[in-house]
Amino acid sequence: MNELTELTQAFASAVKSEKADEIQKVLVSFDKTCRLLIEQETSQTNKKQLIETCLTLQKSWELEINQLKAKVKDEMADIRLNGKKIQKYLTSY
How far apart are CA 43 and CA 27, in angstroms? Predict the structure, then answer.
């Protein structure tokens, strides 16, 4: 479980930095770590709990990624709008 805590911290840092490559690295590592932890667990009860924990984290992270995507989409729209305003200004002379 310590690995999941470290991955959670790494994900929070990657989302804060808004760097897609860092987020991708954490997600790949998360997938491998969850798979490995689940496969290594012998107790069915603990395995079920671990699966639920991984799924909960995955859903939470998916929500954060969607929020970040929306933010980037809004910023892109603002950039396009500013570009159109600049183009209009430049062509008005």
Answer: 26
